[in-house]
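Blackboard transcription, Thursday session:
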Amino acid sequence: QKEVEQNSGPLSVPEGAIASLNCTYSDRGSQSFFWYRQYSGKSPELIMSIYSNGDKEDGRFTAQLNKASQYVSLLIRDSQPSDSATYLCAVNGGGSNYKLTFGKGTLLTVNP
Amino acid sequence: KAGVTQTPRYLIKTRGQQVTLSCSPISGHRSVSWYQQTPGQGLQFLFEYFSETQRNKGNFPGRFSGRQFSNSRSEMNVSTLELGDSALYLCASSSWTGPNTEAFFGQGTRLTVV
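(Written on the board underneath:)
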């Protein structure tokens, strides 16, 4: 059973701080990794994808991947109240088809 | 470019009935996946279609089925509804250029079984 684990939180940070979200996965053959943001009552929105070991930056977001440790993280710099949402880590096992396995999400609250 | 469109947005059904949900992917996308989201289980994979073929299926009973049409639009059907089928059903669209392909979700269909 392929699993993706996330700290359920809630994670609470003050406005302007760095929020750090973590994710581990069990399938060593996983090839692609995604972070989705989901506001309450809305559908998941893709914010970052990462495929190679190391860091990938996009604006205030940085995704980090360490395949040897089977670990993915998302850093949000200069956190804003509008970043308050549930963050979902998703892993695609690769192969010839597309199947995302999701963690249960981390609820982030950014306090003004 | 239009996003992923799911219809209807909300549904209320009675136990034992069946329901059909529809998903129109982003133009040019040929892969459509379906997921069920509940507070207890999170997002769970139902199945994935590509060029009218089901390529992968999750661990759901046979009451859950789907299909994809030649224009890439997809439908999923749930027969003999149970209370536990109440959930947000999400469709994801992908261009499928390999495993490193991003998927984009529609707004979802909120199904309530009473």
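Lecturer's comment: Chain A has no helices and eleven strands.
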